[in-house]
Amino acid sequence: MKQIKFRVIIVGIVFTLFFTIIGAKAMYLQIFCRSWLSEKAANQYEVSLKSSGKRGTIYDRNLREMAVSIDVTSIAAHPPQIKNPKAAAKSLAKALKINRNVLAKRLTSEKKFVWIKRKVTPKEAETVRNLNIDGLDFLREHKRFYPNKTLASQLIGFTDIDDNGLEGIEFYCNDDLKGAVSRYTVLRDAHGRGFEAENITDSDSRGKNLVLTIDSNIQYIAEKTLAETVTKFSAKSGMAVVMATGTGAVLALAHFPFLNPNALNEFDQELWRNRVITDPFEPGSTMKIFSAAAAIESGSCSPNSIFYCENGAYRVGRHVVHDTHEYGWLSLQQIIKYSSNIGAIKFSTKTGSESLFRTLHNFGFGTKTGIDCPGETAGSLASFKKWTKIDAGTISFGQGVSVSALQLVAATSAIANKGIFMKPYVVQAITDHNGRLIKSFAPSKGRRVISEKTARTLTRIMQTVTTEGGTGVNAALEGYSVCGKTGTAQKIGKNGGYANGKYVSSFVGFVPSEHPKVAILVVIDEPKGQHYGGTVAAPAFKNIAQKTLAYMNISPKSKTDGLIVSLGSKAKACSFRIY
Amino acid sequence: MAATAEKGTQKKSMTRDKQDIQKVRKPSLQYDIALLFPVLFLVGIGIVMVYSASSALALKKFGTSYYFLKKQSIFALLGIVALVVSYHIPYRVFRSLTYPLLVLAFIFLIAILVSGFGYSAGGATRWFRVEKITFQPSEFARFALVIYLAYSMNKKKDRIKEFKVGFLPHILLLGMFAILIILQPDFGSVVILGAITWIMLFIGGVRISHLLGSLAVATPIVYFLMVSADYRIERLISFLNPWQYSADKGYQIVHSLLAFGTGGIWGTGIGGGYQKLFYLPEPHTDFIFSVIGEELGLLGVLIILGFYTLILWRGVSIARNSKDVFGSLVAIGLTTAMGLQVCINMGVALGLLPTKGLTLPFLSYGGTSLLINMVSIGLLMNIGASKKMAKTKS
């Protein structure tokens, strides 16, 4: 009994010792490790979330939606809270059709937050919800959707998964379109469910809307015609631009092959660019109108000045320049009408390199137009001081100079606009999420590049191109007189020289001649069989012009001045003068 | 039986046992406040903390946040009744109940393994289930083992130093229990049973060489059991380095430590903890101490530890002052059982020991555990009271 009493005390002491150790450890944790542990704990249940407001809508000029953001669910996970990452990865991979191993790696990572799959379909979200996996999070995000699919897709561009614009208007106006990013803290239980979220006001963070100058009807006309033409001539690609001559507003900007930004990855990256603006090409004979402008503006020639066209072959230094037909004496006007290269050299020689360069430069060649689109090319127009004799000759008919399709149509538009160059633009207004106008963009002031008289003279000359015997007769419209110019440029091959059988066929012009409303350019790259601009591009021009004029209610030989289009019911107060 | 006791006062020829019964049965029976108050306090705190810890879980699982609160309150009431009843049963009665208790314990342990009564949770069959009532036989087995060891060592106290008499039979019985419980599997309970046996043998006067020898034999067995189950190795690894495995194996320990750290000195207040919100596994049973650490802070932790110390020393004192070896051994056995559970549960919660699924006496949710512990307290008080009575008599 005595021994028991003694040993019982020992047991008591040992337990007391254990209790003391427990108390000491508690003190250590709760006093000394307190700040470190509580911070770490807070990190686990406080999740800082980024919420971006809805991206603004892009409308065409008739307030038809071109790009919209729709609410979608994204699935994320908090890896430390996933009890059985392998099993979770397996079932998630099956439900969402994603790679299981990649998922397993993500779910076992040290990170506090990983994406499982973003912007899932409602059905997928429902399936995953029903899996009841702890530690998953369902976040509301916005997905960019282009309801018209391929319409004007290269112009509008697209966004990445984080709603940042990557190309086109989406990129250029990203700051306006993008919703404000708000950060907020949510306390979460281990299942990832928020239990004390702050309220987020959505309307404030929404991005602004854009109203484009594009008219989706004209855009559709241009795209349809382009598709038909490219297909008919088995060409590589095509571009078409329709611009309001008085303002510089781009009404249509079409590319073929089409691009559907809703399924971007199914398309070649080559198609992603807005090539009208980014890609320079040798214009060929369309350049002659600007050489003629230089000749007339400088006063060295009149439309009736005559030049000997050497019967189709003319030696300049070591090079021989050919015409497609053999001509003898032609007036300047005829040189344009029949598109004689030799004639162009002749009258440009008379004009002089400096005057030619000045005029071309004034028309905007060699400099960016400053359109509100990303990635614009300036083209290339070397200073006349660097020109050799052959350069001065070839530039006059569009070789040894490169331009963007936009530059070409804008310069042509300047002739239609009585010699005043208007800076092209595609965004005409910014509105808030209620459709109220925030900012509108008026057409630029314009820059006189040639005198009104010269412009009138050129208009007359360009009119002859589409008359009987002219290269552009296929562009002639019934009931309207058409000004235009064909272009057929041999493409530069890989080794620097001109490639055989590869052409860029184009037609640029404006209608109606008397009171021009729209300037139109059609460029067809590498047509097969036919390659003359007058055969390939001119009919397309005609088609676009005809339908556009009909759509715009411009009656034959009419003198209608303009249309007023209101910006929809929500913004009746503001209207835009267009065309 | 009461009548027998009344008569017994007049009879000089009655046995010592009968005398004791008579003394204990006297209406002047005093409640041991120093033991009762800490116990009732802990049970009360337990109900509050079970509610706080389990409400979110209960809401998710059963649609009402009161699910565990209701059940624990009923257990507490039953527990108090059980305490009072067992207090009024002379502890010597348990001596004669030794073998029935043992047999019952074995029946339960075997039943859950072989019959359809076994009820599994978390991959282990640890509960016996009839209708809606679940019952944890290993808790009962612990109680039966303490009674048996006290009975047996008391009987053999003169030959206790002999290996075959004082040591081997007790170890064999322990082994039988251990095998049945390890099959559930419930490694934690086996460790506790082993430790109780070892300590009681030590108190009972078994040779130190036998005890040390048994340690030498047990260590490889324990080691083998540890490495035989993957989850036990994982627990060990995570215990040694919880932060490195905080995402999976160390998850429980890490969140428990975070709970303590967040609580600080004063705690976040009852209901103000976050770790119970599905971060901590079993916040109302195995990890209730972590919830206490977070919500009641160091202050609450130390107060609760203080009450356990009080209970421990009351137990030690009762064991020391018991007038017979049986009472002494029962008292120290029950005290040891509780003390071990407290140490292991708190040690796990604080990251001092590898994870073991053991409840915290009086505080954790769980009917069997609470009832057995309340009966133990009643029994302890009875042992203590009978000594007091003896003293006042003499």
- Rg of chain B: 22 Å
Instruction: Give average pLDDT of chain A, whole number.
Output: 86
Q: Structural class of the helix and strand makeup of chain B?
A: mainly alpha
Task: List the total number of helices of chain A.
Answer: 19
Structure report:
The complex is a heterodimer of chains A (579) and B (394). Chain A folds into 2 domains: 50-182 and 191-208, Penicillin-binding protein 2a (Domain 2); 216-266 and 275-551, Beta-lactamase (3-Layer(aba) Sandwich), CATH 3.40.710.10. Chain A contains 19 helices and 26 strands. Chain A is α+β, with helices and mostly antiparallel strands and 579 residues long. In chain A, α10 (216-232) runs antiparallel to α19. In chain A, strands 2, 3, 4, 5, 9, 19 and 20 form a 7-stranded mixed β-sheet that branches. Chain B is mainly alpha-helical and 394 residues long. Helices cover 71% and strands 4% of the residues of chain B. Chain B has 16 helices and 3 strands. In chain B, a hairpin with a 2-residue loop joins β2 (124-130) and β3 (133-135). In chain B, α7 (137-155) packs antiparallel against α15. The chains are: A alpha+beta (579), B mainly alpha (394).
How is the topology of this model organized?
The complex is a heterodimer of chains A (579) and B (394).
Chain A: H1 2-32, H2 34-45, E1 46-52, E2 58-59, E3 65-77, H3 85-96, H4 100-107, E4 114-120, H5 122-131, E5 136-145, H6 153-156, E6 158-159, E7 165-167, H7 168-172, H8 174-177, E8 181-187, H9 202-205, E9 209-212, H10 216-232, E10 237-244, E11 250-256, H11 275-278, E12 280-281, H12 288-297, E13 306-308, E14 313-316, E15 319-322, E16 329-331, H13 332-338, H14 341-351, H15 353-362, H16 389-396, E17 403-404, H17 405-416, E18 420-421, E19 427-431, E20 437-440, E21 447-448, H18 452-465, E22 483-492, E23 498-511, E24 518-525, H19 533-551, E25 563-566, E26 575-578
Parallel strand pairs in A: 2-9
Antiparallel strand pairs in A: 1-8, 2-3, 3-4, 3-5, 6-7, 9-19, 10-11, 10-24, 12-17, 13-16, 14-15, 18-21, 19-20, 22-23, 23-24, 25-26
Helix pairs in contact in A: 3-4, 3-5, 10-19, 12-14, 12-15, 12-18, 13-18, 14-16
Chain B: H1 2-8, H2 16-25, H3 33-62, H4 67-88, H5 91-96, H6 98-114, E1 118-121, E2 124-130, E3 133-135, H7 137-155, H8 163-182, H9 187-204, H10 208-228, H11 230-240, H12 251-263, H13 288-295, H14 297-321, H15 325-349, H16 367-393
Antiparallel strand pairs in B: 1-2, 2-3
